[in-house]
Amino acid sequence: GSEPWLKNLVSAALREDPSRRPHLREIVAHLQRLKAIQQVQDEDRSTTAPVLPFATFGYHLKRGEHETDDRMATRWQMIGAEIARDGIANETTFAVDWGSNQGYFSVALAYAFPRMHVFSVDSNDFYFGVKSQDVHRQRNAEILQSSQLSRTMLCQGYLSVNAINSFSQPLDYQLALSIFHWLPLRTKDEFHRTLGQFLAKARTTFLELPEAGHEGSAHAKAYLHWYSPSEPMAEVIRSALETTDTLYTVRYIGNSTIAATRRASATTRQLFRIDVLAETV
């Protein structure tokens, strides 16, 4: 009945292959970081997400899905508060917003955290006749000051296995909000391995995965073979991380709801925070 992070630490220290065991300094660094995170989370629950002086935006709003406004704001309240409690306002940090769409979270991060550099990655597809990055640039110009603009980079591309393997910039944060399940992975092993590699790319990842079998989600049938509706999502994430050599913690933060459409029923997306060993990046 011990904590999952403790089980992970013990199993890593007892690996049969000595080369895969973490060094003592790595274990100490990991424990110090866990202690610092937990202390801040316990003592500073009153800290909320930085207030944004602009309304939510994103392509869902153009479809008349009014719940998107609340969902975007709800997710920012969770993510913004977590980062604010980390106390990184005066530190230079690097973040990637994968599948950033029209850039709401990228703009929010650059605005709210004065020394954060944000890579905003999106395919730049057309949504209702408008390219996503065109809207993103417009929002940047309307909202961000020059010092904030200098810390943002729009990158046209996709979240892919190749992108995960080739992205070399050490990251403090990455956002994968309802984007990872778009990867066309073929087997359960490939799913676990790819997700584990992805999560090891940043010290902290904010991750959403769809409910198993939700008919409106990309690759819904495949995901039913990778995890079941009865399997806790935190355990799915831990199983992926066990394919790596990193030390980690997985914590559920909250959820948001996607309303029903003509093609799919309403669904809930759980948001998790994953922290990995600092030396990994």
In a few lines, what is going on in this structure?
The protein is of the alpha/beta class and 281 residues long. 39% of the residues lie in helices and 20% in strands.
Structure write-up:
The protein is an alpha/beta fold. The protein has ten helices and nine strands. It has helices spanning 4-13, 24-43, 67-86, 104-112, 132-143, 146-149, 161-166, 188-199, 220-226, 233-241; strands at residues 93-98, 116-122, 126-127, 130-131, 152-156, 171-176, 202-209, 248-258, 267-276. Strands 5-2-1-6-7-9-8 form a seven-stranded mixed sheet, with helices on both faces. It has a two-stranded antiparallel ribbon with strand order 3-4. Strand 1, helix 4 (104-112) and strand 2 (116-122) form a beta-alpha-beta unit. Helix 8 (188-199) packs across helix 10. The longest helix is centred in the first third of the chain and has 20 residues, at 24-43. It starts with a helix and ends in a 5-residue tail after the last strand. The model has no long low-confidence stretch (mean pLDDT 83).
